[in-house]
């Protein structure tokens, strides 16, 4: 049994992770945490996360304390950049492997995550769906083969509660596309407004829509002369993100320290 700790347990992803980890034969939820001072602390995690049954795990509001008593093999964290960085530090100090699904990290944040990953293995990826990770690979291949004569644009749509834009997945797609086309992050454009002039060659547009309960949709457009290719992934619930994260948890629990991503977990590394 892989002794698993879930953070942000009452969140959209936290509660999905709790449900799927509870139902997995090889995982045991040994602790679950919420934000410091949360009124949910002390309640049963299963009831607070609306799983329909008690989990016999009481929510704690301090990961440090949760790791002290739980003999955890792995922590799975979908909270937000600030909390994830703090949780990574705690895991590093305690020697516990970590899976981070949060998005919205700055370059400095990623450097801090890398620092924690010197002490423990960490898988961090903006999208843990196996399908999306294959779409990323396919987008890279299309860009390489089609080359600079096609104009590349990334469009994403998410629910109204999402805090960061563009999504971490859209950014990852744009970065991979730029790399495949011999471009850099400076070629990404996020805003078009006013007298923009003609589209500069090599530009990669990244646009975000927000509304309703959209779980997560990403399309890469390759606009050519006389033809257009559209590569789309649509998530219709959060289970595939959580299943991917639990797959990463099983994988990372047996790794050496280092910062890994889902391509490592899925054995896709080097093929973008
Ligand atoms: N990699 C992937 O596959 C996916 C990544 N994500 C990313 O995961 C993150 C979470 O998404 P989602 O579940 O929708 O968000 P939610 O807001 O529903 O959940 C976040 C949870 O984290 C808790 N939290 C926030 N700040 C802290 C803190 N400082 N300390 C402890 N707990 C904290 C929140 O508590 P409170 O409610 O009290 O604020 C909440 O319970 C986002 O960054 C999102 O982009 C989402 C889906 C898939
Ligand atoms: O916040 C979300 O919901 C999601 N965030 C991730 C991202 O920013 O890419 C992944 C997924 O699309 C859902």
Automatic annotation (TrEMBL):
GO terms for biological process: diaminopimelate biosynthetic process; lysine biosynthetic process via diaminopimelate. GO terms for cellular component: cytosol. NAD(+) binds at residues 8-13, 101-103, 125-128. Catalyzes the conversion of 4-hydroxy-tetrahydrodipicolinate (HTPA) to tetrahydrodipicolinate. It catalyses: (S)-2,3,4,5-tetrahydrodipicolinate + NAD(+) + H2O = (2S,4S)-4-hydroxy-2,3,4,5-tetrahydrodipicolinate + NADH + H(+); (S)-2,3,4,5-tetrahydrodipicolinate + NADP(+) + H2O = (2S,4S)-4-hydroxy-2,3,4,5-tetrahydrodipicolinate + NADPH + H(+). It is found in: Cytoplasm. It comes from Corallococcus terminator. This is 4-hydroxy-tetrahydrodipicolinate reductase. Its main location: cytoplasm. Pfam families: DapB_C, DapB_N.
């Amino acid at each position: 049994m892989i002794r698993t700790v879930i953070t942000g347990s009452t969140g959209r992803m936290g509660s999905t992770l709790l449900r799927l980890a509870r139902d997995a034969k090889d995982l045991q939820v040994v602790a679950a945490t919420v934000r410091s001072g949360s009124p949910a602390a002390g309640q049963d995690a299963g009831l607070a996360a609306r799983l329909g049954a008690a989990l016999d795990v009481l929510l704690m509001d301090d990961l440090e304390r949760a790791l002290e008593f739980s003999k955890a093999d792995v922590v799975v964290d979908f909270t937000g950049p600030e909390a994830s960085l703090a949780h990574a530090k705690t895991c590093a100090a305690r020697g516990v492997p970590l899976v981070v699904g949060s998005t919205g990290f700055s370059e400095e944040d990623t450097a801090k995550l890398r620092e924690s990953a010197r002490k423990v293995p960490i898988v961090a990826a903006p999208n843990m769906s196996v399908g999306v990770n294959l779409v990323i690979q396919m987008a890279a291949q299309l860009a390489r083969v089609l080359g600079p004569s096609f104009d590349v644009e990334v469009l994403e749509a998410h629910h109204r509660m999402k805090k960061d834009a563009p999504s971490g997945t859209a950014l990852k797609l744009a970065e991979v596309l730029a790399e495949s086309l011999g471009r850099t992050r400076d070629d990404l454009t996020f805003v078009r407004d006013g007298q923009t002039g003609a589209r500069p060659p090599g530009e990669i547009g990244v646009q975000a829509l927000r509304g309703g309960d959209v779980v997560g949709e990403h399309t890469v457009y390759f606009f050519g002369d006389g033809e257009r290719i559209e590569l789309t992934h649509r998530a219709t619930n959060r289970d595939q993100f959580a299943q991917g994260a639990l797959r990463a948890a099983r994988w990372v629990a047996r790794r050496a320290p280092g910062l890994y991503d889902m391509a490592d977990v899925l054995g896709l590394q080097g093929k973008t």
